[in-house]
Amino acid sequence: MAYILQVDFKMDGPFGDEMVEEFSDLAKSINEEEGFLWKVWTEDREAKEAGGIYLFESKESAQNYLTMHTERLKGFGIEPVNGKIFEVNKGLTQINNGPIK
């Protein structure tokens, strides 16, 4: 069963290409997290918000990542961190071309 982790938080930047430059190493490290499958990075420069939509193999791996990532962001002075975990409905997601196998 796959699980979506939705995370968002307030952030002053960087955004766009600057975010790519600043966070490439972080992005690469996320690939090594247990149970991680993929992430879509999200940003809203005007609202000064960022975050992501992640897919994990299990609810436990999504929760473990959320706990670790929340603490990491707090270490950067980013609070609060909003995180929600959802079970993926595979059948409907496949109808809408979602990247679920």
Would you give an account of this structure?
This protein is of the alpha+beta class and 101 residues long. It has a single domain, classed as 2-Layer Sandwich (Alpha-Beta Plaits). The protein contains three helices and four strands, in the order βαββαβα. It has a four-stranded antiparallel beta sheet, covered by helices on one side. The longest helix has 17 residues, at 59-75.
Number of helices: 3
Structural class: alpha+beta
- Name of the top-level CATH class: Alpha Beta
> Largest beta sheet, briefly?
4 strands, antiparallel
Domain module tally: 1
Strand content: 25-35%
Give a count of the beta strands, DSSP E runs of length 2 or more: 4
**Mean pLDDT across all amino acids:** 95
Key terms:
101 residues; Alpha-Beta Plaits; 4-stranded antiparallel beta sheet; 38% helix; 32% strand
Task: Describe what is shown at a glance.
A four-stranded antiparallel β-sheet has the order 2-3-1-4, covered by helices on one side.
How does the SSE layout of this entry go?
Blueprint: E1 3-10, H1 16-30, E2 36-44, E3 49-56, H2 59-75, E4 81-87, H3 90-95
Antiparallel strand pairs: 1-3, 1-4, 2-3
